[in-house]
Amino acid sequence: MLLVGGGPQDAALKAQAERLGLQDKVVFTGRVPHDQVQRYYDLVDVLAYPRHSMRLTELVTPLKPLEAMAQGRVLVASNVGGHRELIRHGETGWLFPAGQADALADLLADVLARRDSWPAIRAAGRTFVETERNWRASISNYQAPYASLVPEGARA
């Protein structure tokens, strides 16, 4: 397993891997400079984004899964609000119930066994990013709400 990045749980995750006797099976990279990110994407078969359901994860759309889809990667993610906004289960990636480690493990085993479906998932994810998550589409989502704030006679 490759864990790329760092954060407040870094030491706890390393300790857990050691406690479980998995330290030789898990690679912890720590934070990675931006110019090396592509190198790590190229090493990965399936990216997993397990997030617990909380106010932040239900309301904020994360960028990492979107970046993975743009890279044409296969991904699984917990079914929190931000992920459901990006991932169409079985089309652009797969979702599992948040907070259920067994469900994540089962889904990963299933996805790894279905490598023949990966090219379609990769293509659909990339197309989703290109057509729905580009700057033009994102900006168009804000035009009507902002226009409604400006009095009718003041609009250009």
What does this structure look like?
The protein has 8 helices and 5 strands. Helix 1 (10-19) links the parallel strand 1 and strand 2. The longest helix has 15 residues, at 118-132. The chain is globular. The protein is α/β, with parallel strands linked by helices. The chain has a 3-stranded parallel sheet, sandwiched between helices. The chain has helices spanning 10-19, 37-41, 55-59, 64-70, 81-86, 101-113, 118-132, 135-147, and strands at residues 2-4, 27-30, 46-49, 74-78, 94-96.
Order of helices and strands: EHEHEHHEHEHHH
Oligomer: single chain
Mean pLDDT: 92
What is the CA–CA distance across the termini? 55 Å
Shape: globular
Structure class? alpha/beta
Query: What's the gyration radius in Å?
Result: 19 Å
Largest sheet: 3 strands, parallel
Task: Write out the strand line-up for the largest beta sheet, numbering strands in chain order.
Answer: 3-4-5
Count the helices. How many? Answer: 8
Descriptive tags:
alpha/beta, three-stranded parallel β-sheet, 8 helices, globular, two-stranded parallel sheet, 156 residues, 12% strand
Secondary structure blueprint with pairings:
Blueprint: E1 2-4, H1 10-19, E2 27-30, H2 37-41, E3 46-49, H3 55-59, H4 64-70, E4 74-78, H5 81-86, E5 94-96, H6 101-113, H7 118-132, H8 135-147
Parallel strand pairs: 1-2, 3-4, 4-5
Give a short summary of the structure.
With 156 residues, this protein is of the alpha/beta class. The protein has eight helices and five strands, in the order βαβαβααβαβααα.
